[in-house]
Design goal:
The chain has helices at about 5-20, 25-40, 40-60, 65-70, 80-90, 95-105, 110-120, 130-145, 150-155, 160-185. By secondary structure, it is mostly helical.
Length: about 190
């Protein structure tokens, strides 16, 4: 794979290579893709990704979403937050909800923290298109990025949404187990 001028070119090449890759070589291709994306100009990648999201919010196609959305991690920016939140509000179940949360979770802390207030508001009226794995990723993203996650999650344990209440109770139990383990370690 030679360095190309756009993220779109790299995504196409990556997918072509992954279709013909020899078993066990996929990780090398993914690593090389990441290196090539990292080498692109930040402003160009940012513009390409924002254009991709805007277009797919209209078309609902979301082709190669893991590569496009995942590339944000190579060129993180607060400019993506509003677009990632739009993805999370997208009622189409094929939208890359999971990937949007994954990127928010793993962006630099100073950027991820900007999304927290709006992420927390999503719990009030959870997107019905979210799968159980997306709901779990939602909670993981909150826990990963919010030092006061337990306080927030405790408010969701009595949610009228069964999926939210279930995950909130799970996380509350997890916090309790971690506290007990910490106490045992300190004894």
């Amino acid at each position: 794979m030679q360095s190309k001028s756009s993220l779109g070119d790299l995504v196409r090449m990556y997918n072509e290579m992954m279709q013909t890759v020899v078993r066990g070589e996929g990780q090398k291709v993914r690593k090389f893709f990441g290196e090539q994306v990292r080498a692109l100009k930040h402003d160009d990648v940012e513009q390409d990704i924002i254009s991709y999201i805007k277009e797919n919010l209209k078309t609902k196609q979301w082709n190669n979403a893991p590569e496009w959305i995942g590339s944000i991690l190579y060129h993180p920016s607060s400019k993506y937050i509003d677009y990632l939140l739009k993805i999370l509000n997208e009622p189409n179940p094929t939208a890359p909800h999971y990937w949007a949360l994954d990127v928010i979770q793993y962006m630099p802390e100073t950027i991820s923290e900007l999304a927290l207030p709006e992420l927390k508001k999503l719990a009030e009226h959870i997107n019905q298109a979210w799968s159980a794995s997306v709901i779990e990723k939602y909670f993981e993203t909150i826990v990963w990025n919010d030092e006061n996650a337990e306080d927030f999650i405790s408010t969701l344990a009595d949610s009228s949404n069964e999926k939210i209440a279930y995950r909130a109770k799970y996380w509350m139990e997890t916090f309790e187990v971690e506290r007990k383990e910490d106490e045992e370690d300190n004894d």
